[in-house]
Amino acid sequence: MSAVLLLNGPNLGILGRREPEIYGTDTLSDIEEAVAEEVRVSGWDVISVQHDSEGDLVRAVHEHNDSTVGAIVNPGALMIAGWSLRDALASYSPPWVEVHLSNVWAREQFRHESVIAPLASGVVVGLGAFGYRLAARALMHLSETGTGNPRA
């Protein structure tokens, strides 16, 4: 059975209680279950990894490069200056989608540029936890069509 890497960065482990007016009330566990439900139709499992440390996220990307069909990545604030995560994702072969719960372009100016997004197969922002479901659907589509690696 194949698997999707669900990678969540700093502060996302406290979803549901972290600024619910911005990030919603769904917990990371709720999101993991939603993604698992979406990808189950493709026979895929979910490998969920959340770390507040960039180095641990980098390690997870490297560890799962050959064992996953794709990834859903919410780098959190690492989108702004997570250069080592960016470099790890540059060497991640399968397609992956960057996700943000809030619309980062409707927020503070410092959130308006992602160092990671140019490498992604796609980006979903501002749709709350539902954005993860859309990212899962996008990965299934990319897998079926054999597209999705912008670096190819």
UniProtKB/TrEMBL annotation:
- Provide the top EC class: lyase
InterPro entries this protein is in?
A: DHquinase_II (IPR001874), DHquinase_II_CS (IPR018509), DHquinase_II_sf (IPR036441)
In this chain, the site described as Transition state stabilizer is at: R18
Query: In which pathway is this protein known to take part?
Result: Metabolic intermediate biosynthesis; chorismate biosynthesis; chorismate from D-erythrose 4-phosphate and phosphoenolpyruvate: step 3/7
Q: Which key words are in the record?
A: Amino-acid biosynthesis, Aromatic amino acid biosynthesis, Lyase
A Gene Ontology biological process annotation? quinate catabolic process
Q: Does the keyword Lyase apply?
A: yes
* Gene3D superfamilies named in the record: Dehydroquinase, class II
Which residues of this UniProt protein bind substrate?
N74, D87, L101, S102, R111
Question: EC number(s) in its UniProt entry?
Answer: 4.2.1.10
Which reactions fall under this protein's catalytic activity? 3-dehydroquinate = 3-dehydroshikimate + H2O
Q: Which residues form the active site?
A: Y23 (proton acceptor), H100 (proton donor)
Q: Which GO terms describe its molecular function?
A: 3-dehydroquinate dehydratase activity
Task: Please report which protein family the annotation says this sequence is part of.
Answer: Belongs to the type-II 3-dehydroquinase family.
Subunit comment for this entry? Homododecamer.
Q: Which HAMAP family match?
A: AroQ
- Physiological role: Catalyzes a trans-dehydration via an enolate intermediate.
* Protein's name according to its UniProt entry: 3-dehydroquinate dehydratase
Q: Which gene encodes it?
A: aroQ
